[in-house]
Design a protein that fits this description.
Chains A, B: Pathway: Amino-acid biosynthesis; L-arginine biosynthesis; N(2)-acetyl-L-ornithine from L-glutamate: step 1/4; Amino-acid biosynthesis; L-arginine biosynthesis; L-ornithine and N-acetyl-L-glutamate from L-glutamate and N(2)-acetyl-L-ornithine (cyclic): step 1/1. Chains A, B: It catalyses: N(2)-acetyl-L-ornithine + L-glutamate = N-acetyl-L-glutamate + L-ornithine; L-glutamate + acetyl-CoA = N-acetyl-L-glutamate + CoA + H(+). The structure is a homodimer of 399-residue chains. Chain A is built from twelve helices and 14 strands. Chain A has two domains: 267 residues, L-amino peptidase D-ALA esterase/amidase, CATH 3.60.70.12; 120 residues, ArgJ beta chain, C-terminal domain (Ubiquitin-like (UB roll), Roll), CATH 3.10.20.340. The longest helix of chain A has 23 residues. With 399 residues, chain A is of the alpha+beta class. At the A-B interface, helix 9, helix 10, strand 12 and helix 12 of A face helix 9, helix 10, strand 12 and helix 12 of B.
Chain lengths: 399, 399
């Protein structure tokens, strides 16, 4: 799918190197390049401690135009003071020099250890070759080079059409699901050859991030380096996609789907995770309350261990809703595992349906729906099971 | 220490039975009894879904007098509807009958599986023997019987003196530390023979709980069954302890120390935990912000894995402070492992001090101090290391 997707994206090239920033000697430097300046939008960390590459890149992205992104893994260039800022600027300068671009068209991004200075000699030594190696087909190598603790590289792609002109959306991400992914940097880079109006591109990215990366991590628990960028170079030559049109709706759909796919890969990459579970809350007093309740269930260690234990332990779910802060009337709550109702009006529906729910729990991907029956609010979160040894104690607690 | 403490406490008796509520056949029923009605105070779950025993007991405790507490493990009697309420009332009725007490002097408490009806036949069958077995020395058996996933029973004791009259404080708890102890019920019962003024007893309990159990769990992440009770039967015959006196200060000290000791035992009981770490934040803009920042550090999986890896990874600490929501100026933060300063004004102090900090990390109990240098706010949280296999990946990330 990735290859299929990437084929349709005009004007983007990629390269990767093992520059020795990671002690393991694995690839740790990636370059993303567009043959022409691309319109861009970004979502950045909300952490009050902001890493140098974000300080340097965020204002450049906000100016709306970007042609290259230099990404390194192995060192986050965070908590590195003024030297860190100088190093981040120098990274951009090196990439700009090697590519013959103005500096303000280059974004830089880093992930890895905090508090150590960037080994600039390695950037100086490898940037020339990195620029020289750029090719359209090397997206998988780039995705590989931005990994840190990820068990696998993460790529996703989609193909769309705007007024008869085909375009592609291609994205890579790094990040591994954990109980609290609170400091594991999440990076994602989206490339599209569609021509998209600048304001709508920004809005579409925020909508897509809200429904994907912000539905797997705990709000506010962001690393110092988090960054999601979209570059739209317009080489598909479609009429500009503007908000409120069918073409905009379609583009939003593709972008959201691609980012959701990456987000689910991050969930699945939780060490040892065997299941991806959607927690869907409806009937809440409002959308924010629905998301709050869904998040509470999705981040409960005991709920997640029950998923691992394939135990339809709805008591843990109802309790997690109870402490979420969302309005809840315990005597009205309904709970479903896929289509199987295990709780009606706050009480269990019996052993037969619970046995059916256990069958659902044995599948690798399913949905838990909680209906609070109080209003129209809906929200969802994605989570994994907890499979680590220690949680077996909780998973087996009921048996 | 427990035995020593319990000897000095007049008029309290305990008993325990294996009633078959737990499938394991282990002790699951405990009775706490005071020979005379005791003044009492309680702190109860803030979960919006409240288990039946809490619904029944909270108003009784708020009336200020209690003579017996019947506690079962193996079944939480939560999400059990009207039947659950009837069963909780019946439990109190059974204990009152067996002890010859009015029902409103009996509190009931349950912990275990949610959503299943209490096996009332087992209560009916065992209550007589349970009441008959009461003895002053059986506190350890009672503490044993309230365990669920706890690796060990938890008891703590202190001896005090008020106007020349010695008194004792004895407490038991159940609960095991987890990343989020969000649904693992926390129960604690404190017995003292001191004579304590009712309003001050309530205030002293809240102060002690705030500095202990509420400094290890994530605020708001309470189970449906959480309950902390203190019973003061006055048999030490000291002049009534009233607020604002040296005797009150001393009593507060004993109560706080006993509950903190239990809370640390709960932290230590995190499956596989090898270290208990105090996270002390000072210099915050206010006390609430200090506690917020301390909690953020204490609940970060990545910080906790670094403790396990004995890695002085202060970057993870500074980042957890950064996303806590507390005011922080990254360029002013100082961080210490015990007395060893690893961060000054937001920057690392170098390899030599980091090596010294690593020595601190090798000890089983230490303090991480974060000085935000913004104001006078102080707060602390207690946490454990994360030792599970999966986190080894994060613990080894830097090496």
């Amino acid at each position: 799918m990735v290859t299929k997707g990437s084929k349709t994206i005009k004007g983007f090239k990629f390269s990767a190197r093992a520059a020795g920033i990671k002690k393991s000697g694995k690839p740790d430097l990636a370059l993303i390049y567009s043959e022409v300046p691309a319109r861009c939008a970004g979502v950045f960390t909300t952490n009050k401690v902001v890493a140098a590459p974000v300080v340097v890149s965020a204002p450049r992205i906000r100016r709306g135009s970007c042609q290259a992104v230099l990404v390194n893994s192995g060192n986050a260039n965070a908590c590195t003071g003024e030297q860190g800022l100088r190093d981040a600027l120098r990274c951009g300068e090196l990439a700009a020099g090697a590519l013959g671009l103005p500096e303000d068209l280059v974004a830089v991004s880093s992930t890895g250890v905090i508090g150590l200075p960037l080994p600039m000699d390695k950037f100086e030594r490898h940037i020339g070759q990195l620029a020289g190696d750029l090719q359209a087909g090397a997206v998988e190598e780039a995705a590989e080079a931005i990994r840190t603790t990820d068990a696998f590289a993460k790529l996703s792609a989609a193909e769309g059409e705007a007024d008869g002109k085909p375009y592609g959306v291609l994205a890579m991400a790094k990040g591994a699901g954990m109980i609290h992914p609170n400091m594991a940097t999440m990076l994602a880079f989206v490339m599209t050859d569609a021509c998209v109006e600048a304001g709508f591109l920004d809005q579409a990215l925020r909508t897509a991030v809200d429904g994907s990366f912000n539905s797997i991590t705990v709000d506010g628990d962001t690393s110092t380096n988090d960054m999601v960028l979209v570059l739209a170079n317009g080489l598909a030559e479609n009429p500009e996609i503007v908000a409120g049109t069918p073409a905009a709706e379609a583009f939003q759909g593709h972008l959201s789907r691609v980012l959701l796919e990456l987000a689910k890969m991050i969930v699945r990459d939780g060490e040892g995770a065997t299941k991806v579970v959607e927690i869907a809350v409806k009937g809440a007093a409002g959308a924010a309350q629905a998301k709050q309740a869904a998040r509470s269930v999705a981040t409960s260690s005991l709920v997640k261990t029950a998923f691992f234990g394939e135990d339809a332990n709805w008591g843990r779910i109802i309790a997690a809703v109870g402490y979420s802060g969302a309005d809840v009337d315990p005597n009205r709550v309904d709970i479903f595992f896929n289509e199987v109702q295990v709780v009606k009006d706050g009480l269990g529906t019996g052993k037969e349906l619970e046995a059916k729910a256990t069958e659902v729990l044995k599948t690798p991907e399913f949905t838990v729906t909680v209906d609070l029956k109080l209003g129209e609010g809906q929200g969802r979160y994605y989570t994994s099971d907890l499979t680590y040894d220690y949680v077996k104690i909780n998973a087996d607690y009921r048996s």
